User: Fold these one by one.
Assistant:
Number 1:
Amino acid sequence: MTDVTSELRRMITESRRAVVFTGAGISTESGIPDFRSPGGLWERFDPQVYANYRVFLKVPSKYWEMEREVTKIVQAADPNPAHKAIVKLEERGKLSAVITQNIDMLHQRAGTDSPIYELHGSAMTGTCVKCDALYKRQEILIKLEKSQVPFCDECGGAIKYDVVLFNEMLPYETITKAIKATKKSDCLIVVGSSLLVSPANQLPLIAKNAGAKLIVVNIEETPIDNVADIVLRGKAGKILPKIVNF
Ligand code: NAD
């Protein structure tokens, strides 16, 4: 057994309030591309344009052009061994929360029962940007079969999933709860995030400063590797099951 392996096992064994912080990289093995995959979705749909709130207010069809494709990809995806390993951590009584930047609902579908804080909102519902009328995802999908943009029944305004676009505020209550869980955690495991998107990328350092152990799982370097207690380089779907199954 290597030093890193025994140290990792010790951290997980001693942990009582682990928090797993996930980014798009945990879902690439489910077939959902992250922002970095070459030749992927995001080369055709620059998120700064197609996922930009200011652009949405002027030309909502751009967002829905991208979102139609994302919706198809997300609907075809299933939780992978990394999402399932987090459920295992929960079953072992170690997990206090999942904090995710993802909007693919794969943690919920994997069966995570602990609180899931979706920092960038949820695509389970949508809201009319004009009158704030609320719609369920299923109602929006039905509207999308009939028109390019789903419009509000009340006022005719454009509906957008309740996900956070560039130039939009993060959900304040969710962020506050996520920070609270982070400060209380004894071990924060960062999985598949480039940690380039602020303020979500502050959470690992908040955890570290509050005394938690910091574990990073990624196929490439991240900006916090130098402060992490353990860095595991590789695919989340291979590494996470090893972290929890021993
Ligand atoms: P990102 O695209 O910036 O970074 C993904 C990171 O995951 C990269 O560092 C990459 O090296 C790593 N990675 C890719 N595959 C991996 C694997 N199999 N195992 C381990 N690591 C892997 O994503 P981000 O940091 O989450 O931030 C960007 C934004 O992208 C977020 O706001 C998120 O909402 C949005 N997004 C979400 C989804 C989704 O819901 N699945 C998909 C694309 C983008």
Note: Residues 124 and 138 are 8 Å apart (CA to CA).
Number 2:
Amino acid sequence: MSTFWSRGLKAAPKGDVLRYQVELDDPYGHYLKVSLWLGDVAAGQQFALPVWIPGSYMVRDFSKHIVMAVAESQGQSAPLNMVDKSTWEVAAAYSQLCITLKVYAQEDSVRAAWFDENRAFLNGTSVFLRVVGRESWPCELTVVAPKHPALQSWKLATGLSVVDAPEWGFGKFVAEDYHALVDHPLEMGNFSVLTFEACNTPHAMVFSGSYDAVALNRQRLIQDLVPICEKQIQRFEPDTARPPFNRYLFLTHVTAAGYGGLEHRNSTALVCAQKDLPCGNNDEAADEHYQQFLGLCSHEYFHSWNVKRITPEAFVSPDYQAENYSVQLWAFEGITSYFDDLGVYQAAVIPVDAWLTQLGKTITRVHRGKGRLLQSVTESSFTAWTRFYQQDANAPNAIVSYYAKGCLVALCLDLNLRLWSEGEVCLDDVLRALWQRHGVTGLGVPENGIETLAMSMLPTHQQELAAFFELALHSTEDLPLGDVLSEFAVSLNWRAAGSLSDAGGKEVPEWRQWFGASWRLVAGELEITRVDIDSPAHRAGLSVKDRVVAINGYRADLDWAQQQLLQADAGDKWQMALFRGHRFMQKTVELEPAPKTTAWLGLNNEATPAQLRRRQEWLQC
Ligand code: ZN
């Protein structure tokens, strides 16, 4: 038996327990049967399905996929009444009660539930009813081996403790309470497993979906993931090198073009594209796709501390039925975003210039959007539910990402701490203090807790830190990135974009002109997908969803239009013929000089000895 599985073995809970069961009933109809047994039910007892999943801050109303909810007690039907969109109630008292849900599972994302003849993926928030008032009771979960002939060879992977199930098999599992039950996703199907150890702790990566199992370079993955995991463990526990879990599971679903992840207490659900996984020989440098995948693994793994255990007060006992507000997502996502790629570099998996490229792209992402001048990162955090998670085409003009700008705040905070303390204090120290004070104890972080803690760690510079936090967290002024980086012998350079796909981070030839809109090809026509505020396209009256059919009298096909942009100059006038819905319109766009909002970073080896020494301490280069 693999150590990953055997490390999870646990005795069945005694006494009060909630018993859940999942049956994989109908893969073609995508139906799961999910049952819950409990005793001593009072009249008026309520049962609720969460409306959101922690880590993804949007109301998703998972109950919309419950196609049937029935209850029975000792063979007799027990009436179940709906109280609101996601809550049921029994009118009478019962000594024994069983509630059964029929769940339609066909949302292919890390946040919901999926079931077909190829795989099943379950998040507890999509399928397990919360027994209101019994959130702290232990939960036993039985996942029944599927009887359907198409699913006979299926396996099961989860970070849940195992009461009685063969290795990677179906059976009985246990969670200490409801919060734990819904924080352990389950993957089922014919997946493959990669196991390794980091800091003497068993880890496993499970691959499902469409990938080339033969070409997958497993040795390379292990070679790179081990130091990344160990780097993050040592960051929080430099003395003991002990992670806060006894095993860790990466559930990786490989698709044609997906990307994303969701963090859990001892696992993560990832989506990546085939091209993100390593297939070459071991000595090749990681390409940008594989770098992105390693950054994603590093990011979700870092969340095991930062957000899963060091948690905003508002998320410690989450309200599963409504939005939970915090201004701190800049820290829980932004600090995580700073240390994800940095961790990959510090683990010696990518060279420093690859990391600087990633950072340059993040700076570019923030600075190309005028939304940064309208919204602070704390406002972005607070309104995540309706704005960051429900972006429309105007989002770059209206909001700032608490991930991207939060990453830059973390960078500036780290460098300011290093500068003002003359190398005595850095952001790692703040993280370790947060870990001891809030992670180990389980005490939530109050809304200004990180700022207060950082200031207490540098009493000689409290005023400077307070001013920095005011600017970085509560204002819409740009961060002093160039000045701060120059003190660490890194130069921040600005240029114009060089192509429509130019995400920044590198020095490339620039465009001379600025059009100010993006497009994509839809049914042979150019559809406008984004119009930058205060740009030539905005001034000319172009709008998102306009279908451009001709430019300067010629049919606007994609390659030709890209070529025209490449050859154009500031001052050129473009006569654009377009349809807005069924209405034909003509617009004249006068191209302007390209703004320098694309960033790239370089090592400045001409810097002063003090600056070079600081860079050495920060980046070991
Ligand atoms: Zn994250």
Note: The chain has a mean pLDDT of 96.
